[in-house]
Sequence to fold (247 residues):
Amino acid sequence: MKIEVILSPAELPALAKRDLRETVCAVFDILRATSTFVTMLHHGAREIIPVSEISEALQIKKTRPDILLAGERHGLKICASGIDFDLGNSPREFTPEKIRDKTIVSTTTNGTRALRACTGAKTVLASSFLNLKATAQFLQEHKTKNVLLICAGTGKNKADEDILAAGALMELLTARGDARPTASNSAEAARNFYLEAKSHLADAVSNSENAQRLLAISELRDDVSFCLQRDIFPLVAQMTADGIIRR
Ligand code: MLT
Fold:
């Protein structure tokens, strides 16, 4: 297994020039897109359609009025073209009662764009602390040769929480007795970053740009601790070639 980590959103446009057909991408947007997508699936959502733009979400809603509109801009639920989205991007909003058997279209600032940037990959996984072990097991059981861990970031900046999660996955993938993966410099850097912070992970994450923003909004502050829970949702969230995420 060869593992590489994309540390910054600035590196995403270059993915379009790469042949990812033999690569599995695992996308991390810990605060909060991929954490929220894993939560949606655990709570019974049928499928999630991640889109980059609000206009794409509204277009799909026009053709499929039954779907739920979800997502954020600046961390808050979207209201666009006079339409209030059904839900924002807090994982705690997506209760079984609201979303069971529903299709949800979501657009967020970085996470959905990072997922879409992996189009063409063999498989794309929405990864988080909530389903980290299940993600590691998927990669090991499928004897994945090339793994690309994508840290979605915040705005144009790196997000410490995403790099820490990528490092934690690296730690799981190297801890087993199996053949040690070949790690790029960026992958080793992410792993070392995690090993240095793992004993005080909540503090390390709480100082990040997006955590600070969420902690300052009373109704969103509990999202930070929620998204740091380990392996509470043992599922694999997989985006297939049709661009839809399912369990
Ligand atoms: C993102 O996509 O950048 C994040 O999910 C933003 C958020 O949820 O606050």
User: Anything to note?
Assistant: The pocket of D-malate is lined by residues 29, 32-33, 72, 75, 89, 108-111, 154, 210 (CB under 6 Å). The chain has a mean pLDDT of 96. The chain has ten helices and 13 strands.
